[in-house]
Structure formats: structure tokens, C-alpha cells
Amino acid sequence: MRALYLLLIAAASALPAEDATEVTSLHWLTGCWEMTTPRGLVEETWTRPSGGTLLMMGRTIRDDRTIFSEFVRISVEAGKLTYTARIGTPGMTAFPLLERTPDSLTFENKSHDFPQRIIYRRSATGLFARVEGEVKGKTGAQEFHYHTCR
Q1: What CA–CA distance (Å, rounded) separates 94 from 74?
Q2: Domain range enclosing 122
Q3: Rounded to 10 degrees, what is the CA torsion of 110, 28, 50, 73?
């Protein structure tokens, strides 16, 4: 009986092949990306897509101290490619896919405080990321121009 129960759990949690392909096609995010800003060194390290997920660990380092960190999972949730972030606080925030091209991804969660949109684009010089949204009725954005980690 226990074996049947485990088999049913495994079958229920298996991703359909098209869901795994959705994530696998994002291989261009894989790697270690960094940039230097006045706040410090900003890094994002993305795993290779596998098992229906792509994972990222990000941090900002200033004066040999991590002053910001985040953990991200891109996976198919409820049939939609979704960017789910844990940013320095308990809980996770999901940003479903809004738009996709072969070289870019835009995720959006209009109910989140900031950002409401997260954009990644492959560029000739590395990886471009942008977060944008409204804060107290004013539009704001941050851009990240990453190159391969040294």
C-alpha cells in the first residue's frame, strides 16, 4: 500500500513534458552574472535548467558584507511559466510570465509593492535585467547590466 501511495505522489507531481521544455529553453540564463554599482557588487548565479526548475541565488556585497540576498525559482505553476522570489523576508512572491521572446522574459505581479514587473533579456555583452513598477503613484525602475563573473 505504501508503494502505491508513493507512486501516486510521484505521478501527481511529475511535470508534463511541455512544462519541462518551457524551463529547459531558458538555458541562456545559466551561469554567474555580476555588475558593480555604487551600492556594491551585485551577483546572480543561475543553475542550469533541470527537473522543471531554474534556480537563482542573488546577493549584493558591500565592504565584504552581504547587504541583500534573494532566492528565485522559475517553474511552470498552474500551466504558466512563473518567477517566484524570496527576497530577504519570509514568504515567496510569484510573478507569472507576461511576455516571452527567444531572448527575453517579462514577469508581472501587479499586486506586489515593488517591483511589479521583472524583465530579463539576453544581450550581446551579457545579461540585462530590469525591475519596474509604481511606488506611491510614481513609476520607478532599476536596471542591471550583468557580465560574466570573473
Answers
A1: 9
A2: 15-148
A3: -20
- Secondary-structure breakdown of the chain: helix, strand, coil percentages, each rounded to the nearest 5: 15, 60, 25
Segment 89-131, tens digit of pLDDT? 678 999 999 999 999 999 999 999 999 999 999 999 999 999 9
Query: What's the domain count of the chain?
Result: 1
What's the pLDDT band for 7 if we cut at 50, 70, 90? very low
Residue 10 lies in a domain: no
Q: b/e per residue, 99-121, with b = 16+ CB within 10 A? A: eeeeeebbbbbeeeeebbbbbbe
